[in-house]
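G., before I forget:
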Amino acid sequence: MTRLPRWADLVLVPLISLLLAGLFSTLVILSIGQSPVEALKTMVDGAIGSAYGWGYTLYYTTSFLFTGLAVTVAFHASLFNIGGEGQAQLGGLGVALVCLALPWPHWTLALPAAMIGGALFGAAWAAIPAYLQAKRGSHIVITTIMFNYIAAALLAYLLVDVLKPVGQSDPASARFPQGTELPTLHEIPGLSLIFTKQVPANVTLFIALAACWLIWVLLWRTRLGYEIRAFGKSEPAALYVGINPVRITMIAMLISGALAGLMAINNVMGESGRLLQNSAEGAGFIGIAVALMGRNHPMGVFLAAILFGFLYQGGAELGLFTSIPIELRTVVQGLVILFTGALDHMVRMMLGVFFAPRRGVR
Amino acid sequence: MDFATFVQILDSTMRLATPLLLACLAGLFSERSGIFDIGLEGKMLMAAMCTGAAAALSGSVWVGLLAGIGGAMVLAAIHGVASITFRGNQLISGVALNFVASGITVLAAQSMFHQGGRTPPLSGGARFNPIDLPFAEAASGIPIIGPIYAEVLSGHGALVYVALLAVPLTWWVLYRTRFGLRLRAVGENPASVDTAGISVVRLRYTAVAITGVLCGIAGAYMAAGLQAGFGKEMTAGRGYIALAALIFAKWRPWYALMATLLFGFFQALALRPDVIKASVGFDVPVPALDALPYILTVIVLAGFVGRAIPPRAGGEPYVKER
């Protein structure tokens, strides 16, 4: 197979993969007898056509930034963390427990505490699979899948039997105190001129952007990041230079779980104001698509998170205003993962034809 | 728990274990050949939708079964192309296909029937109707063995017996045929199989195709046996429970039967919280029972109950020349 130039590998491959996913999505829309043009128009109008739409798109983007970064960090250590969904749900539990513990006077006090709660619970949920992988060689993909289901069962139990206040019928925690409400983009001075209506996107967005930068620093500017990447590239080589595989596996997964858990300040604290069942709503899985699409780089994750934010908000609009079911976004998500993550060699082979050495050296 | 209730629970154990068993054996073929497949869930779901739709349109459950197998085979083929031909990441391919299946089944059912993403309820010849085993009526009078034969073993849809027969058949194919020997070899050491002049690619495609067929039967049973028609996400994680059972069984057919019966028993118990309370004396939360298969699998994976060692070449694409 021809080696592609670096720029082609970084830009062209994801772009072509995305186009292929788009092409197949179009075929799906056509085959159920709907108009792809109208679908795209509805999505663009609803997701990025107005500040109000952006308010939703950015809200989803925030969640996907956290889960995308979570998958990215684990990927660099060559660990495939499918457990982001469970870790995000446990993060929600952590955030809810912090928010309900005290009558918080102001969100500036509640937010750091909730962040610690969410990150700790998320990290703890990733710690067990990480330990089993590092010490006992249990495949992390399988254990994290199992932990997603265990998390769902645990939360179903806690919400119905423990956290549900007396006299409430739906399985959810009590409402968080007023002092934990995070300002939305509509309530931030200056931004309120753009976002004139109430939107779900909130200050968590800036924390997610900061996390993006921090993870970049961590991975490419610190010794620990170097160790994580070296371990991910080649375990024997890492061992040879004295990198402790158990330590790196644990740390990478703890960071990954903490990032997934942090997502909860966006949806649980920032949006719903109480802990609901299935709070992560699949964002943990979308993190996989975001990380693959973003080529495991924080900048790529940022772009991919916006794309998926658009897809998510746009997909919701489709469900509301056209007869295309909302599930279309799950299909597109699957196709993006398929083409960027599993069929990437196919795309490279296709492109290789154009980049083959002219004079037949190889 | 009295004997009659116990028989009832065993009866539903049989029914609930069937899709798990079929999917588990499906995974067994694929993983024994060195192709990890976490897309069992998606294939079952796809098959369930195809069966639900085809059985509703044709009125025949057998047409439905064929459509279900076809639907699962399409996904199996994509998984094969991605992971064998293009040497892609098998885990990612499985995850991707699960999402595609989850969405596309609803889209297809909605565009065909306009019933909120479901297929119309099936009845009569469009479902797998219970088959009474010979002498079931006569034997039911015999104490203990009688009711077990008449209630637990007899009176299920055809696919329950297909699933049960698939266990010895899988064992035979795997351990007593040339194909089975090669299949196991290709999952452990594909290079040696290649050296012997046998096509690794063809063996793996065959295994993936068998996975498709078995997942198709599992999905067909979901839509036309266990329930009457397809509904959104109706497999509800069964593909993953089957995966758990496969690890629990350490990739062996007879143990797969036992593991899926055990997990089916948990599912049957979860449907009867009253019985649990009566027999253990306190309320066991239903989610605890739901989580039990996963918790047990993690314990097995951790190596506390023997070691679960997957086929050695599992998950790695085979590259012929370097």
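Residues 96 and 232 of chain B are 18 Å apart (CA to CA). Chain B touches chain A through 48 residues (CB under 8 Å).

More on Monday.
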